[in-house]
Amino acid sequence: MQPITGTILAIDPGGNVGVAMRTPHGEYVTLTIPQIDRHDVYDYLMLEPQYVVLEAFTPYQRIDHNMIQVIEMVGGVTAICRVKHIPLTIQTPAARKAYVKQAERLAREFHTIHEVDALAHLLRFIHASGL
């Protein structure tokens, strides 16, 4: 892994999309993209982050319209990263569990569970990769 010189972007796909970023200056930023605007997540990939972390699609129940949207988002993010040569790490939902409390402390005062989940994935990536 290369040292961090750019932004790390973590995405928690779902009806509402959680996004967390670590800037090159070590600051953490989180946001939630509402379901109606979920395709806006692709705009963040156009900024060409240094690394992208994405929660994998894991079907827990019957696949419905919302789950199809998650599958499409995971595929879209994967494709954009491949075309733009952005290193992509896909993590299971369980991978973030040990980092949720730390993410809650780092998240801004008014945050959503989607933001915390994305930030927990980002923190797990940083720890696991030794960055």
Which helices and strands occur, and which strands form pairs?
Layout (H helix, E strand, L loop, with lengths): L7 E5 L4 E6 L5 E6 L7 H5 L5 E5 L9 H20 L3 E4 L8 H7 L6 H17 L2
Parallel strand pairs: 1-4, 4-5
Antiparallel strand pairs: 1-2, 2-3
Can you give a write-up of this model?
The protein has 131 residues and is α/β, with parallel strands linked by helices. The chain has one domain: Nucleotidyltransferase, domain 5. It contains 4 helices and 5 strands. Strands 3-2-1-4-5 form a 5-stranded mixed β-sheet, sandwiched between helices. α2 (65-84) links the parallel β4 (51-55) and β5 (88-91). α3 crosses α4 (113-129). The radius of gyration is 14 Å and the shape is globular. The termini are close together. The model has no long low-confidence stretch (mean pLDDT 90).
CATH fold-level assignment: Nucleotidyltransferase, domain 5
The averaged pLDDT comes out at 90
Alpha-carbon distance between the termini? 8 Å
Number of strands: 5
Task: Give the class-level CATH name.
Answer: Alpha Beta
Keywords, please?
single chain; 131 residues; alpha/beta; 4 helices; globular
